Amino acid sequence: MNQTTAIRQLKELGRLGSVKKMRLAAEGWREEWQTLIAILMSARTRDEVTVIVAENLFVEFPTLVELSKANPKDIARIIGPVNFFQNKTKYVISLAGELLKQYAGKPPHELEKLILLSGVGRKTANVFLAEYGADAIGVDTHVSYISQKLGWTKHTDPDKIEQDLLALFPRTCWRKLNSTLVRFGKTYQSRIEKDTLLDLI
Q1: Cα–Cα distance, 99 to 117 (Å, whole number)
Q2: Of 84, 110, 131, which closes a domain?
Q3: Which of 20, 83, 175, 195 is deepest in the core (most CB within 10 A)?
Q4: Of the residues 131, 151, 185, which one is the last residue of a structural domain?
Q5: Which domain holds residue 178?
């Protein structure tokens, strides 16, 4: 795969994916810690579900202090609709405390520091960083699947896919990759599954 073809394909995916307006889990939060927690909760869960759950969570627990002291049963009751909510309940409470204790409530903007926080893996960290303007690629299910289908990578391991995409695309494209592919994937899921993705672009 050459870079020129990949960039052309990315632009077309962006055009097609912008037809239907949608809010992704990382978008539209007032506080950075809310963004990070929403992304954490979005793992293996549809964005439209995550956004509603996160809004409900932040209404009931509007500050990190309140979240850090929350009863796990109360958190689990609210975030029950997201997948793996039991584990995410623990992560949300721990993460809130860590952000308060280590960073005065403001998430760090360094990948190495973010991935040391509870529940924050490389994908979550990169999506968070890209949302705030950093050149980073968050490799989730959509990015992984579409990248393989288009021949941008031959790997299935997210870390190796990330490295392939970093090498294939110019830095100016990195922060747009996740949101572009997620929007496209959510809009054309059935076409992708039927292996007609290349027919679209």
Answers
A1: 8
A2: 131
A3: 175
A4: 131
A5: 3-20+136-200
